[in-house]
């Protein structure tokens, strides 16, 4: 049997209606009928019982359908796999994140992505703030969602995925903890705990952990931890204050830290970034999936 004959036979075996079969395959109804008659002459036995109101498989037709279906499914899988390989939609996609609120969204999108692209696997891992782009540059990750700004010549900045109001984490006993809001000028009255690391770009540090207020007052910097959990611990111990996004509070809330909103600071923004030289179909498809699933820009409350 030729491929088009198999397609016509199996479609009619499912539809049991010549007109619906012809519409499904985009063929003239007479072409469908001729193909079935040709097969029946070749086999020397009817495959369908036909009346003006009824179409049904004969016993031979049922057996042929049952024998052909697995072969057709295997053929279609082979074709789909070859097309996926041609599009680069196979293999492992490694996705990084720097915050638990982002991880939750990535895990949800990854499940849908796997169903859409069964020949792709998705691995999600946390990226430490002290080396924000190291895993991308070393090839450990293909794409990640990270805090903006990102201005690196070898990295492509993708779409924004989260915009969250900026807050100040302060010790529970700090004077700021009793206030409804704080301002950027208030940082001159506190010690700022800033994430440190030789790989952290200076422009990124200046944006999130300024050394001067907008009015020009100096901002004292205290301990320089390398991990986010250390920042929380140091704030809780009263060693200083540190900015964060409001969406992070439900993941990292603790009794010794109070989250006070800024009344004049820009939001903290998160977006996709990937190595320009490593852009591929898998990366583009994952980013598109994130956006089409409604995981667009959002604002914390």
UniProtKB/TrEMBL annotation:
The yes or no answer to whether the keyword DNA-binding is present is yes
Domain HTH lysR-type residues, every copy: 1-58
Q: Which family does it belong to?
A: Belongs to the LysR transcriptional regulatory family.
Q: Which Pfam families match?
A: HTH_1, LysR_substrate
Protein's organism: Streptomyces litmocidini
Keywords of the record, alphabetical order, are:
DNA-binding, Transcription, Transcription regulation
Identify the domain of life.
Bacteria
Protein name in the entry: LysR family transcriptional regulator
């Amino acid at each position: 049997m030729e491929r088009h004959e198999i397609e016509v036979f199996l479609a009619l075996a499912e539809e049991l209606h010549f007109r619906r079969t012809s519409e499904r395959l985009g063929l003239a109804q007479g072409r469908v009928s001729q193909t079935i008659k040709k097969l029946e002459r070749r086999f020397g036995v009817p495959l369908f019982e036909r009346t003006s109101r009824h179409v049904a498989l004969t016993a031979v037709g049922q057996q042929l359908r049952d024998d052909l279906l697995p072969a057709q499914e295997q053929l279609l899988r082979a074709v789909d796999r070859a097309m996926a390989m041609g599009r680069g939609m196979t293999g492992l996609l490694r996705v990084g994140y720097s915050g638990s609120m982002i991880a939750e969204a990535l895990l949800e999108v990854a499940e849908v992505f796997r169903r859409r692209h069964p020949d792709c696997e998705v691995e999600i891992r946390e990226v430490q703030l002290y080396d924000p782009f190291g895993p991308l540059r070393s090839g450990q990750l293909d794409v990640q969602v990270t805090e903006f700004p990102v201005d690196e010549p070898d990295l492509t900045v993708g779409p924004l995925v989260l915009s969250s109001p900026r807050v100040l984490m302060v010790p529970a006993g700090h004077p700021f903890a009793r206030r409804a809001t704080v301002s950027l000028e208030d940082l001159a009255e506190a010690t700022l705990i800033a994430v440190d690391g030789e790989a952290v770009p200076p422009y990124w540090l200046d944006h999130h952990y300024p050394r001067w207020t907008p009015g020009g007052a100096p901002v004292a910097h205290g301990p320089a931890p390398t991990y986010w959990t250390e920042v929380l611990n140091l704030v809780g111990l009263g060693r200083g204050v540190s900015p964060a996004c409001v969406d992070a509070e439900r993941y990292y809330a603790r009794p010794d830290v109070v989250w006070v909103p800024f009344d004049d600071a820009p939001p903290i923004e998160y977006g996709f970034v990937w190595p320009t030289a490593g852009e591929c179909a898998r990366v583009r498809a994952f980013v598109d999936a994130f956006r089409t699933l409604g995981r667009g820009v959002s604002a914390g409350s």
